[in-house]
Every structure is written in C-alpha cells, then in structure tokens.
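tl;dr need the bound structure. longer version: we got a ligand (SHN) that a collaborator sent over and nobodys looked at where it sits. i said id run it. heres the input, straight from their email, havent touched it
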Amino acid sequence: MNNLFPIFLKLEELHTLIVGGGNVGLEKLEAVLRNSPKAKITLIAPEIKDEIKELAQTHNLTLIFEKYDSKYLDSIDIVIAGTDDKAVNQQIQQDCKAKKILVNIADTPDLCDFYLSSVVVKDDLKIAISTNGKSPTFAKRFREVLEEILPDTLHETLDNLQSIRNKLKGDFQEKVQKLNEITKVMRGE
Ligand SMILES: C[C@@]1(CC(=O)O)c2cc3[nH]c(cc4nc(cc5[nH]c(cc(n2)[C@H]1CCC(=O)O)[C@@](C)(CC(=O)O)[C@@H]5CCC(=O)O)C(CC(=O)O)=C4CCC(=O)O)c(CCC(=O)O)c3CC(=O)O
Ligand SMILES: NC(=O)C1=CN([C@@H]2O[C@H](COP(=O)(O)OP(=O)(O)OC[C@H]3O[C@@H](n4cnc5c(N)ncnc54)[C@H](O)[C@@H]3O)[C@@H](O)[C@H]2O)C=CC1
C-alpha cells in the first residue's frame, strides 16, 4: 500500500536548496530543472561538478562553494540533500525538521519527507510515478512505456477542452456533467 500523497509544486515561487554537488546533486538538479526550468535554486558543496557550473550559467541557480551549515536554511522552503557524508545528511534532516522545512535525503528513504518521482510529460499533461521507494528502475521503465503510448494529439485535445471549459455556462454541477459527457469517448463508451 502506497500512502504517499502526490502534489505538483510551483518551484519558481519557492526557494529550493540542494546540498551536494556530485553525481547525486547533479541528478536531482536535472530532475528539478527538467520539470521547472525557472525554479529558484541554491546549491552548496565544497566540490561542484562542471555540469552543475554550466547549468548555473543559464538558470536561476546560485552556487555556494562551502560545506553545509544550518545558516543556509534561512529563507529556504524545500531541501534535497545528496552529499557523500552520512553524518552531514543526517544533520541536514534534523535541522530541516527543527525549522519545519520539507527535506529529501536522496540515499536514505527513512529520512525523506517526500520522494522524487518518475515524470511522464506530453504537452500540458504530466504524470508522476511512485513505486513507494521499492524500485526507481521500475518507475523509470514504466515512464518510458507511458511516454511511448500517449498520443501526439494531446496538445489539441487539452486546448479544445480548455476553451469549452471557459465557455460553459451554468452552475458547477451542470459544467461537471457536460465535461464528463464530452470526455466519455476516452473510456471507449
Ligand atoms: C526513495 C527515492 C528517494 C528520492 O531520491 O527521492 C529513491 C532512492 C534511491 N534511489 C536509488 C537508486 C536509483 N535511483 C534511480 C533513479 C531514480 N530514482 C528516483 C527516485 C527515488 N529514488 C525515490 C523513490 C521513487 C520511487 O518510489 O520509485 C527517480 C524516480 C526520480 C529522480 O531521482 O529524479 C529516478 C528515476 C527517474 C526516471 O528516469 O524517470 C536509479 C536508476 C537510474 O539512475 O537509472 C537507481 C539505481 C538502480 C536502483 O536502485 O533501482 C537508491 C539506491 C542507491 C544505492 O544503491 O546506493 C536509493 C536509496 C534507497 O532506496 O535506499
Ligand atoms: N552516484 C549515484 O548514482 C548514487 C550514489 N548514492 C550515494 O549518494 C552519496 C553521494 O553520491 P555522489 O553524488 O555520487 O558522490 P560524489 O562524491 O560525486 O559527490 C559528493 C558531493 O558531496 C559534497 N559534500 C561532501 N561533504 C559535504 C558537506 N559537508 N557539505 C556540503 N557538501 C558536501 C561534495 O563536495 C560533493 O559535491 C554517496 O553516499 C553514494 O553512495 C546514492 C544513489 C545513487
């Protein structure tokens, strides 16, 4: 049973901190930027990979070439930590708890408030996949399957539905009924 509650964050409105500038830091940074290219991000680590330095040239990404310190949590909303030092990762989790900041410790699911997901994107449609931490590789493979089967005409469909939605008159119940009627074809009815 997967009890995780999925939400879609507006990361350009929040300030994200990534701690660690190695492979994991880069992977998580890329995951964030792929979805939210305008996200406001600060990344801290004494050693930062060149690929991350390049991303800082073209994104709202500030790099700090220091060791983690709790002072860097000031004005931060959400934290992703992936240093190669378990004790540091644990300290970050404790500091975030004390400050009520949501935190992801990449290599320790038990210390995470949230997990990253595999993300399928086709135009405005976005599907997030979670395996409850059981198999990120399954999530990745299933993303590939869904990417393959989603129709290329989605853009048109969603635009049409949006314009119908904006034009519909009547009370809420009537609108819901009408929109359900129009989209019945999706269930093969
Ligand atoms: C719990 C979670 C916490 C979190 O990171 O948020 C977590 C934890 C861990 N990942 C590990 C390993 C790998 N992670 C990936 C890939 C992804 N991992 C992602 C999410 C999550 N990973 C969260 C649960 C998501 C869920 O519920 O399914 C994805 C979906 C999203 C993203 O990271 O952007 C992204 C795929 C994106 C895509 O392509 O669609 C691959 C495959 C690869 O890289 O090809 C491997 C190697 C193969 C393998 O192990 O499966 C390890 C062991 C490390 C070690 O052995 O040292 C841990 C720690 C542990 O499990 O203890
Ligand atoms: N490489 C991978 O794909 C995966 C690795 N892991 C685990 O995650 C951890 C990190 O892995 P990598 O990113 O590959 O390591 P890495 O060696 O490439 O990077 C470690 C990063 O942590 C930073 N760091 C170290 N101490 C710090 C501190 N006090 N404050 C701030 N930053 C600090 C370093 O400067 C460096 O940028 C390792 O423990 C690894 O076992 C987990 C999942 C996958």
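gonna send this back to them w/ a short note. The CA atoms of residues 161 and 182 lie 9 Å apart.
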